Amino acid sequence: MSVFINRVLNLKHIKVIGFDMDYTLVRYHTERFEELTHRLAADRLVSQFGYPEEVRDLEFDFHRAIVGLVIDVRNGNLLQVSRHGKVKLAYHGLDILDFKEQRRIYQEMAIDLRSPDFRSLDTNFAISNGVLYSQLVDLKSKGSEIPAYHQIADDVNRSIDILHQDDSIKSVLTGDFEKYVIKDPDVAKMLERYVDYGKKLIIITNSDYNYTKKLLDYAIDPFLKKHKSWTDLFEIVITFADKPRFFERQGRFLRIDPETGLMSNHEGPIVKGIYQGGWFGKLQKDLGYSGSEILYLGDHIYGDVVSIKKTCNWRTALVLGDLEAEMDGLRKAAPVQKKIEELMDQKQTLEREINRLDNLRYEGKRVSHDKINKLFEKMDGLNTEISELLRQYKAFFNPYWGEILRAGYDESRYAEQVEKYACIYMTKVSDLYAYSPKTYFRPYHRTMPHEAAALNSEERVSSRTK
């Protein structure tokens, strides 16, 4: 897979490379992981939050949610929002809202995501969260004794948080890493290569040290060629970082003894070792590098990317694992997309001709009504063909929501965040292994609408003079 570039990034100038751990350094089998979270959260809702027993029996449907959706806690809807804040698709529970109902509720106005009525699903557990929320709204619609929509959202979030706080999820994972964790030998190769090139490597993870050690012992150590342990690769490891708080406010560093796991208060500079908590400001100061010399890779758009860009000037890279299946769909859908574009070109030609004739008629010149009607008939035929092709195109992606980075014809809100805050992005961190640590990443020149119009105009003139 490739690395995708939003902004210029010269790896030669990067001195420190930081990594998140879960879903970044180490990938999980997402569907299995989300199904586990869904099941445990549903059980917790019954046992601790008083939800009806039938909630335990809810079956997980991986396709019912995707990363980047928005929960409308006032109306109980799950939304797909464009980069312009417009609702493009909405479900109430498990039922899609028809266009009239969607327009009645949202009135084609831009959604203000700063409002407490809306909550973004962009965390590691966005899918299990979204699926469970939709199922609970569906049960409520069918008469089950389920709380109000905003309370459902609070309870689902809280139940998932508790699963992490009491290690319910991680105890299952550590008992069966083989089922849930993807081993990727190229990650170890990439890390050793960066060390050979003199890069300082660090880890900043929200996981605790005990779990971090077990996971990296399993996923990294077996593939090392020049080092005995992952601890030899990393200059500094920070656990329980509490991102995004780590990048937003000061916190105390605790030093961890790697042999015993015991912690002690830490005073003085942050030097090679393993820590808990802390704050990026002190870490950067003690590392002795400017923010532009530090690159951080993570999978969480807010905790690992947006918060960094808003509080410090580190360079950022997003690991978007969901993109792998989407790109496979794009490749398979390419022939259909090509036909759609050809028909759209024909449609635009017809529209230009209709506009030309309409302008002539407005200027008082005689224009045949039959000619215009025939053009509209051709337009209707093209629309029918395009609609069928769009149906075929959508079949290559999520059956409920389509593409993650698209909301209808527009880019999605999630795509807008990726473009705005991530310098580069990729499907997995080992994609970087295909690139030299001295690579100069440059984005493609972006063509703005007026530039495209000027270029197309020049092409039409050129074709007429040949």
Automatic annotation (TrEMBL):
Name of the protein in question: HAD superfamily 5'-nucleotidase-like hydrolase
Coiled coil: 333-392
GO MF annotations in UniProt: 5'-nucleotidase activity; metal ion binding
Lineage: Bacteria, Pseudomonadati, Spirochaetota, Spirochaetia, Spirochaetales
Family the UniProt entry places it in: Belongs to the 5'(3')-deoxyribonucleotidase family.
InterPro entries assigned to the protein according to its UniProt record, in alphabetical order: HAD-like_sf, HAD-SF_hydro_IG_5-nucl, HAD_sf, Pur_nucleotidase
Keywords on record: Coiled coil, Hydrolase, Magnesium, Metal-binding
Source organism superkingdom: Bacteria
